[in-house]
Structures are given as structure tokens and as C-alpha cells.
Write a structure and sequence with these properties.
Helix content is about 50%, strand content about 10%. The chain has about 300 residues and is α/β, with parallel strands linked by helices.
């Protein structure tokens, strides 16, 4: 227990220091002194992407928009990097790869960086934290990042929640998305489905078919959740069957008229009056020719 406690304390204190949160006041320590901020500008070509970066998707439009902004204002927020293990003249990006990619498009020659000498574990933690805080990760990228930390560094979901700054339920629900079919994961990566949609799909018998339906019909999360809670209705929709029509209750006046006609004719009578209109239909049910003859007699019609 003491080892776990020290681990969490180190992460909580160490990550804040690595990020450079000036709002956290701590006494000077050897650990903190070793990770003091090292800021400088370096040539764009001296930066290399991190192959373990949880963010895999970079939308073309977002890069184009950011590139135009960088042409006008330059890179405002430094890119977080660490010395490359394979090349002493290069720096591996921990957080800020999108800015680096856009800077290359904008034709910038230098980029401001903050250099941190951190382990693979800390680099992955920082990359996930930075991207989650900026909402830069799609749900699948976030889930895969959490999966990396748990698989490679033996985090429990509770420990991971403390490190990331999210609730344990958020971490658990996000990681469950990895169980969805690849076609559903693709929808999430492309932004066609949200995490809310995906959570409703997890318990569905055929999540891939339901995901196709959600995208086709542009269903909201609330509509998706409602269908997920009604398996029979969902099955009808996915099979292409028409939903059952709900019969509207007739008003009191129509019911009273039906009763009077039924009493007069001695047969079942149904009045189908359309609300707001003068048209409708009158149905008289008979079960024999004798009953039909009796209806005609009462209506004054000769049957020959």
C-alpha cells in the first residue's frame, strides 16, 4: 500500500511540475530542481513526432485553419518535447504535434519548445493529459491511450483516473469503447458518432448495424439511448419493418354516436371521423345475409 501511495503522490506532484503549473506552490526539492523549465526556440526540422502519441487523427481542415493562424501570429504556446533517445540533435514531441504539423505548412523555420527530460511513462501520461484537457482526442484515441497506460505500466483504473484527472467511471466507460466493432470505432474516429452514442451501443446485440442506422438517420444521443432501451422497437427498425401505428383514442362525442347507431341497428358500428375535417367513414359489421337485409330494412332500402 505504501508503494502505491508513493506512486500516486509522485505522479500528482511530478506531473504538475512537468506541465509547469505555476498555480501549484511547492517547496524546492531535488526532484523539482531537476525538471525546471528549459524553454528555447529550435529549428522545425529538429522536432520529430512521438510514435506513441495517443492522437492518431489530424483533420485536414483543422491543420489548414491552424496553419493560416500560425502564419499571422506564429506559435503562441510552446511545444512540449524531450531529448530524442536515438539522436542527440533531435527532440521528440510529447504534446503539440498538431502545432508542429501546421507550422511546417505555414513555412515557419523555428518553434518555441519546453524541454523535459522524462521517461516513456511520464511522456505518455503528459501526452494524454494535454490532449484530454484540450479535447483534442477522439473517444477511441482517448481509450487507446488509457489502454496503453494500463497495459504497459500496470495502472489500475482508479490510479489512472487520479493521474488523468477524470472520474473512475469515465475511465472505465471510455475503455469499454475498445470492445466495439471496428466499423463503429471508425465512426467515432471520424466524428460521426460521439462517446455518448457509443456508450449506448456497447450492450446492443448488433452495434455495427445500429451505428449505421444512427449515422444514416442522424439520431441524437437521447434518441439513441431511448432505442437502446427498447430492443423490440430497435429490431423492427433495423429489419426495415414499419413501426406499429398507435391508435388514437376517440373523443367522447364519437363514442356516444357509435353507441347510438349500434343500439339502433343491433350491430357493431364504427365511426372514423378525421379531426379537423368534415370527412370520415362509417363501418357497420354484419355476420350474415339476414343481418344485411335487416340493415337495409331499417334504412328503408328494398333488397328485392
Amino acid at each position: 500500500m505504501a508503494e502505491d501511495s508513493n506512486k500516486n503522490k509522485r505522479l500528482g506532484r511530478g506531473l504538475a511540475a512537468l506541465i509547469g503549473d505555476s498555480a501549484i506552490q511547492e517547496p524546492a526539492t531535488t526532484e523539482r530542481a531537476a525538471i525546471q523549465r528549459d524553454s528555447r526556440k529550435v529549428p522545425i526540422e529538429h522536432l520529430v513526432p512521438n510514435p506513441r502519441n495517443p492522437r492518431k487523427t489530424f483533420a485536414e481542415k483543422d491543420l489548414a485553419d491552424l496553419s493560416e493562424s500560425l502564419k499571422a501570429k506564429g506559435i503562441v504556446q510552446p511545444i512540449l518535447v524531450r531529448p530524442s533517445a536515438s539522436n542527440p540533435n533531435r527532440f521528440e514531441i510529447i504534446a503539440g504535434e498538431r502545432r508542429w504539423r501546421a507550422a511546417q505548412r505555414a513555412g515557419l523555420h523555428e518553434a518555441p519548445v519546453v524541454i523535459r527530460d522524462v521517461t516513456d511513462q511520464e511522456a505518455l501520461e503528459l501526452a494524454i493529459i494535454e490532449n484530454v484537457q484540450r479535447a483534442d482526442l477522439n473517444p477511441i484515441e482517448e481509450a487507446m491511450g488509457y489502454g496503453q497506460l494500463t497495459a504497459e505500466f500496470s495502472y489500475s483504473q482508479g490510479e489512472l483516473a487520479k493521474v488523468i484527472g477524470k472520474s473512475r467511471s469515465h475511465v472505465a466507460n471510455t475503455m469499454r469503447l475498445l470492445k466495439l466493432p471496428n466499423s463503429v470505432k471508425d465512426y467515432l474516429s471520424e466524428g460521426l458518432l460521439t462517446a455518448g452514442h457509443a456508450r449506448a451501443l456497447i450492450t446492443i446485440e448488433d452495434p455495427a448495424a445500429f451505428a449505421d442506422f444512427i449515422v444514416e438517420k442522424n439520431l441524437t444521443v437521447r434518441e439513441t439511448e431511448k432505442l437502446a432501451q427498447d430492443p423490440e422497437a430497435l429490431e423492427r427498425l433495423l429489419s426495415g419493418a414499419k413501426p406499429e401505428t398507435v391508435k388514437k383514442e376517440k373523443d367522447a362525442d364519437t363514442k356516444a354516436l357509435e353507441k347510438r347507431l349500434s343500439d339502433f341497428l343491433g350491430l357493431k358500428v364504427s365511426v372514423g371521423h378525421k379531426p379537423g375535417k368534415e370527412s370520415g367513414d362509417l363501418k357497420i359489421k354484419y355476420t350474415s345475409l339476414e343481418q344485411l337485409d335487416e340493415i337495409c330494412r331499417k334504412l328503408g332500402i328494398e333488397t328485392g
